[in-house]
Design goal:
The protein is mainly α.
Length: 713
C-alpha cells in the first residue's frame, strides 16, 4: 500500500489507493485458529503472534456482522491487557515487546509504540528489527530526520534487508534528498529481486517479494486483509512493508521531482506491470503531461479513475487537459466532479493532518467519527470512535457517538450499551440521554412497539430536563408524542422549539442548531389536525409556508381540511398547488378527482383518476372511483351502444380494483352495483354476497342483496 503522506508538489496531495487490495476470504476461520492458540498456548512467540493477529483482525477487518459469540473474542482492551501482562511477566523478552509495539502501531498509538520499540533497542542495541519499527513510527509522526537516521542504523545492522532500504528511501524523499532516495530504492529493489533477505534478523523480519503493502507475508505482517476496504488502508500501511511495485512507484516520483521524465515514466510503467493501481496511473499521467503527450496523459488519468473514481486530482487534471484542448463541456463536467470531491474530503484531510500533530488522540479520532457520522458512513464512524475509546476509555462523548453509529447500523443492543456507558461516565450529559433516545426510537421504528417508543420518550424527557434548550431532543420528543397521540406533550415540545427561536433569531429559515422552523410549524399543524382543531392547524400550516413556500405537505393538509369543512373550491386550489410542486403525487390527483365528481365535473374527475392510475398502476382506490364515475354518468342521453360500452369499461375498472384489493367490501359492492345496472343479476348477487362475507352486518349491503334477489324473480 502506498504510504500516506507522499505528495507531489505540482498538484495537491496524492491520494491513497485501495485498488490493489484483495479480500481476505476466511476471517472467521482465522478467528477460530487464533482463538484456539490464545486459549491453549503459554506465553511465548506463537501466543504473542496470535494475540497481535487477533487484535489486528478486529481493528482492520470489518467484522461488525459477527455474532455475539465471535465478538466476545474481539475485545481490544482484553487483548491489549494480555499483551501488556506478557511484557510484565517477560520483562527481558524482545519478542514480547515487539508484539506489543506492533499492536500499538496498528492502533495508531504512536507514543506508546515509540516507547515500546525504544525498549526493545534498550534490551539489545543491535536489534535491527527494533530500529526498523521505530523508524516506521517516526515516519508516521512525520519526524523524517529521525526516521532516516533510524532506518540507516537498521540497514547497517542488517545490510541485506530490502524493506528497510525501501523505508529509508521514503524518509530521504520526504527530506527532499532525491539522489539518496534513488540509491536506497534501487538497493531495495536489488535485494527484493534477489530475494536476499531470506536470512532474517531475529525474530521476525520478513522476506522480500512482489507482494503489495497490505498483503499477507511471512513474519512481520501476518495480518488479514479487510473485508470492507473503506478506511482500512491506514491500518495496513502502519504494519505492512512496501512492495516491489510500491518502490518502483516511488522511484518514479523521485525522478519526476528531478525532472528526469523518461526515467519517471519507465519506473511508473514497471510499477503498473507488477500491480496496476490508481496512483501509478495518475503519476504516469503527470509525467505524460510534462512530456506534452496529452493523449497518453488522458488515457492514464482515465485508467486511474477506472480503479478509483473518487480520485479528485485525476478529475482535476482531466479538466485541465480538456480545457487546453477546447473540450469545454467535458472540462466543465470534470471540474464540477473535482470540486464536489474536494469539498467532501477536505474536512477529513484536515482532521487526519491534525491527528498527526495532536497530543489528544482520542478527541481527534472522535472528531473523525463525527465527520463520518455526518457523511452517513456509519461503519467508518464506529471504527474511529473505537480508536478514540482505546486512547481514552473514559471518553463519554465517544461512547455516545459510537452508540449513534451502532444505532444506524441496526446494532441496537451494542448502541444501548455504549450510550448507557456514556451516561454512567457523565450522568448529567443530556446528549447521552438524547443518544439513548435516538437508539430506542430507531429500534421502535423497526419493531413498531409502543413500549420501545415509550422508552425513547423517557430518554428524551431526561435529555430535555437536563438541557431545556436542546432542539434535537425536543423535536424527537414531539414527534414520538404525536405518533402515540399524546397531543399535549407533543404540543409542549414543539412550542418549546418555537420559544427557543425567539431568543436568538438570526436566520428566519432555521432555528439554532439547524432545526427548521417550517418543520416545527408543520408538526404543530399535524398536532391540531389530529385533534380536528382546524383553525389552529391552518394557522401553523400558513406559518410553515412563510418559511418554506414549497412545503408540499402543508398545501396537502390544508386541502384535506378545506374538503372536511366543505370549502371544495379552496381545496382544489390547495391540491393544484401540491401538483405544481409534485406533479406525480397520486393522492392529490385522486382527491381532486373526488372533488370534481362531487361537483359533477365529470370530465375533470375522469382525467384526475386516469392520471392517478398512470402514475400508480396499482392504485386500487382510483380504479374503484373511476368505475363508480362511469356508472353514475350513464345518462339517458347516451345511445344504447354508448351506454353498454361505458358500462363494460366501468365493470373492467371495478374488477381491477377488486383484483388489486380482494378483501375490500366497498369495492365488491361497487362491482355488484355495476353488474346490476347491466342486468347481470347472478354476477351482482355473487359480488354482494362476497361483500357481506366480509361485513355481515352492513345494512347497505343487506339491502342491496334484497334488491338484486327481487330483480331476479
Amino acid at each position: 500500500m502506498k504510504r500516506k503522506g507522499i505528495s507531489n508538489k505540482t498538484l495537491a496531495r496524492t491520494e491513497n489507493s485501495s485498488c490493489h487490495l484483495k479480500r481476505f476470504e476466511h476471517p472467521k476461520r482465522l478467528l477460530q485458529i487464533t482463538q484456539l492458540i490464545v486459549q491453549t498456548a503459554n506465553f511465548g512467540g506463537i501466543y504473542l503472534l496470535a494475540l497481535s493477529l487477533l487484535l489486528c483482525t478486529y481493528v482492520i477487518c470489518d467484522l461488525g456482522g459477527a455474532d455475539a459469540e465471535e465478538r466476545k473474542y474481539l475485545d481490544v482492551d482484553e487483548v491489549l491487557t494480555k499483551l501488556e501482562q506478557a511484557v510484565v511477566e517477560n520483562p527481558n523478552s524482545i519478542e514480547t515487546y515487539l508484539a506489543l509495539g506492533k499492536t500499538y502501531l496498528a492502533l495508531s498509538a504512536m507514543t506508546k509504540a515509540e516507547a515500546t520499540f525504544l525498549h526493545t533497542i534498550g534490551l539489545d542495541s543491535k536489534f535491527a528489527e527494533g530500529y526498523y519499527w521505530l523508524g516506521r513510527v517516526y515516519y508516521l509522526q512525520e519526524k523524517f530526520e529521525e526516521s532516516r537516521n533510524t532506518f540507516q542504523t537498521a540497514v547497517e545492522l542488517f545490510p541485506d534487508w530490502g524493506e528497510a532500504y525501501a523505508e529509508l528511501g521514503l524518509s530521504y524523499f520526504r527530506l527532499h534528498q532525491y539522489e539518496a532516495s534513488e540509491k536506497a530504492y534501487l538497493k531495495a529493489l536489488s535485494l527484493m529481486r534477489e530475494n536476499a533477505s531470506h536470512e532474517i534478523p531475529p525474530p521476525s523480519v520478513n522476506k522480500g517479494g512482489a507482494k503489495r503493502r497490505g498483503e499477507i507475508v511471512a513474519g512481520i505482517s501476518l495480518l488479514p486483509l479487510p473485508l470492507n476496504e473503506n478506511e482500512r488502508q491506514e491500518w495496513l500501511a502502519n504494519v505492512t512493508p512496501l512492495s516491489e511495485a510500491d518502490v518502483y512507484y516511488y522511484l518514479s516520483l523521485t525522478f519526476f521531482k528531478r525532472g528526469l521524465l523518461d526515467e519517471a515514466s519507465t519506473y511508473c510503467e514497471k510499477a503498473i506491470l507488477i500491480e496496476p493501481f490508481a496512483e501509478a496511473y495518475f503519476q504516469l499521467g503527470l509525467v505524460s503531461v510534462r512530456k506534452k503527450q496529452l493523449k497518453e496523459a488522458e488515457e492514464a488519468f482515465r485508467q486511474a479513475l477506472s480503479q478509483k473514481p473518487t480520485m479528485a486530482q485525476a478529475h482535476y487534471q482531466l479538466a485541465l487537459l480538456y480545457s487546453k484542448r477546447k473540450r469545454v463541456t467535458e472540462a466543465k463536467k470534470e471540474m464540477e466532479i473535482f470540486q464536489k470531491l474536494r469539498r467532501e474530503t477536505e474536512q477529513f484531510q484536515k482532521q487526519r493532518e491534525a491527528l498527526v500533530r495532536s497530543v489528544d488522540k482520542a478527541s481527534a479520532f472522535a472528531n473523525l467519527g463525527l465527520l463520518y457520522l455526518n457523511e452517513q458512513k456509519y461503519e467508518e464512524a464506529a471504527r474511529e470512535y473505537q480508536k478514540a475509546l482505546w486512547h481514552n476509555p473514559d471518553f463519554a462523548e465517544a461512547y455516545n457517538g459510537l452508540g449513534h453509529a451502532y444505532a444506524m447500523l441496526g446494532r441496537f443492543e451494542e448502541a444501548i450499551q455504549a450510550q448507557q456507558k456514556a451516561i454512567e461516565l457523565q450522568p448529567k450529559m443530556a446528549e447521552a440521554y438524547a443518544g439513548l433516545g435516538f437508539t430506542r426510537m430507531k429500534q421502535a421504528e423497526l419493531s413498531q412497539s409502543e413500549e420501545d417508543y415509550r422508552l425513547a420518550m423517557a430518554a428524551y424527557r431526561k435529555a430535555t430536563e437536563l438541557k431545556p434548550d436542546f432542539p434535537e431532543a425536543l423535536q424527537n420528543l414531539g414527534n414520538i408524542a404525536l405518533k402515540l397521540s399524546l397531543f399535549p406533550e407533543a404540543e409542549r415540545a414543539f412550542e418549546s422549539l418555537l420559544s427557543l427561536s425567539l431568543k436568538e433569531k438570526k436566520d428566519k429559515d432555521k432555528l439554532r442548531e439547524g432545526i427548521n422552523l417550517a418543520q416545527v410549524h408543520l408538526a404543530l399543524g399535524m398536532v391540531y389536525l389530529r385533534q380536528e382543531n382546524f383553525p389552529k392547524a391552518v394557522s401553523h400550516y400558513q406559518k410553515a409556508l412563510n418559511y418554506d413556500p414549497d412545503l408540499v405537505s402543508a398545501y396537502y393538509n390544508m386541502g384535506f381540511i378545506a374538503t372536511k369543512v366543505g370549502r371544495k373550491a379552496l381545496a382544489i386550489e390547495f391540491y393544484n398547488e401540491v401538483l405544481k410542486r409534485q406533479p406525480d403525487m397520486t393522492e392529490a390527483h385522486y382527491l381532486l378527482g373526488k372533488i370534481y365528481a362531487e361537483q359533477k365535473k365529470y370530465v375533470q374527475a375522469e382525467e384526475s383518476y386516469q392520471r392517478a392510475i398512470e402514475i400508480e398502476p396499482t392504485a386500487s382506490y382510483a380504479y374503484e372511483r373511476l368505475a363508480h364515475l362511469y356508472g353514475v354518468t350513464l345518462t339517458p342521453t347516451l345511445s344504447q351502444e354508448e351506454r353498454e360500452q361505458r358500462l363494460d369499461k366501468a365493470i373492467q375498472f371495478a374488477q381491477k380494483a377488486v383484483e388489486l384489493q380482494p378483501d375490500s367490501a366497498a369495492y365488491l359492492n361497487t362491482l355488484s352495483w355495476l353488474y346490476y345496472l347491466r342486468r347481470d343479476y347472478a354476477q351482482a348477487e355473487q359480488a354482494i354476497q362476497k361483500a357481506l362475507s366480509l361485513q355481515p352486518d352492513n345494512p347497505v349491503y343487506q339491502e342491496g342483496l334484497q334488491i338484486i334477489q327481487q330483480a331476479r324473480k
